[in-house]
Specification:
single chain; UDP-N-acetylmuramoyl-L-alanine:D-glutamate ligase; 9-stranded mixed sheet; 4-stranded mixed sheet
């Protein structure tokens, strides 16, 4: 089993616990480590995978917390850089009475990850590289690193995984830029995961089925469209099937998609690129079913990182 490299943002989510209040009126916040690729790395490690996380955090207590949490999961943090000239990125969020989210994104160190920060990574040790950072499509050095590392992975025949992780509040004024960059990655990668909302946004479709058809026509990747409690639509060589999930009583859906991706990549890390390309629909159904199980079980706990602690032996015991 070779290493999996996850690259992108590591940040602190500050969740307002004063239900229904805006950020300006809320007084109580819950501090949680997060960032989509950070979550995926933690899930892979919790399942027993060999995973590295490349991300930039501040040289502050919050950056240290992120590093310590990853170490506790067993993630290699040698490529987590602490930047003395920047602060750890924060995302403040509150769910208001009308169901809308009040959101403030204080971008700091995560967007400053640059080519020099990753130049020592031995890609020959990696069987999979996962790109899963919404913030990487915002302007900054991280965007350049994503494009550069994608090309290196293609040149070295490394399995490429992608999750766009669209966040509307980050791209209110530049959705088209996000869509353009998402297409670039989806057309280059071997596997990608999108939510049903992302699938319709990126393709401009009114239905998940139509979106999946367009994605299958314009990409060569195997891909999954997550459908919440209904399961996941798996598309392999234009064949579409729904892989059901399991019944759970959800408490918090945070991190469910990242747990799904982590479980899928953990299973794929057992194989070479050529072996993955030879997997048939039945092989993929089992992989996706296990991913569904990991995602569903994550919803039974409050907070993604707390949930990931319970993934060990969930699928493979």
């Amino acid at each position: 089993m070779k290493k999996i490299l996850c690259i992108g943002e590591a940040l602190i989510d500050m969740i307002c616990t004063d239900t229904g209040l805006s950020l300006s009126k809320g007084e109580h916040f819950l501090k949680k480590p997060g960032g989509a690729p950070t979550n995926v790395a933690a899930a892979i490690a919790a399942l027993g995978g060999d995973v590295l996380l490349s991300a930039k955090v501040g040289a502050d207590p919050f950056g240290q917390q992120l590093i310590d949490v990853m170490k506790d999961f067993g993630v290699s943090t040698i490529w987590m850089v602490q930047d003395k000239n920047s602060f750890t990125t924060f995302a403040f969020v509150s769910l208001m009475k009308d169901g809308e989210r009040d959101f403030v994104f204080n971008r700091g160190a995560d967007g400053q990850l640059n080519e020099k920060d990753i130049e020592g990574i031995d890609l020959a040790e990696c069987s999979i590289i996962h790109f899963g950072s919404a913030t990487a499509f915002l302007p900054g050095p991280l965007q350049d690193v994503y494009k550069s590392l994608l090309q290196k992975a293609l040149d070295k025949d490394i399995f490429i995984s992608f999750d766009p992780n669209y966040r509307q509040l980050l791209f209110i004024n530049n959705t088209e830029t996000f869509i353009e960059q998402a297409w670039h990655f989806m057309q280059q990668c071997h596997f990608f995961k999108v939510s049903e909302e992302e699938a319709m946004l990126i393709t401009g479709s009114d239905s998940v089925f139509d979106a999946a058809t367009i994605l299958s026509e314009k990409t060569n990747a195997t891909f999954a469209v997550t459908l919440g409690k209904e399961g996941t639509m798996l598309v392999l060589q234009k064949e579409k099937i729904i892989v059901p999930s399991i019944d759970v009583k959800p408490i918090d859906t945070t991190g469910a998609g990242d747990a799904f991706v982590g479980a899928v990549l953990y299973q794929l890390s057992k194989y070479s690129l050529q072996m993955i390309q030879a997997l048939n629909i039945e092989d993929w159904k089992e992989i996706i079913a296990n991913g569904n199980k990991a995602g569903a079980r994550t919803c039974e706990y409050m907070g993604a990182m707390e949930a990931f602690k319970h993934l060990n032996n969930l699928i493979f015991d």
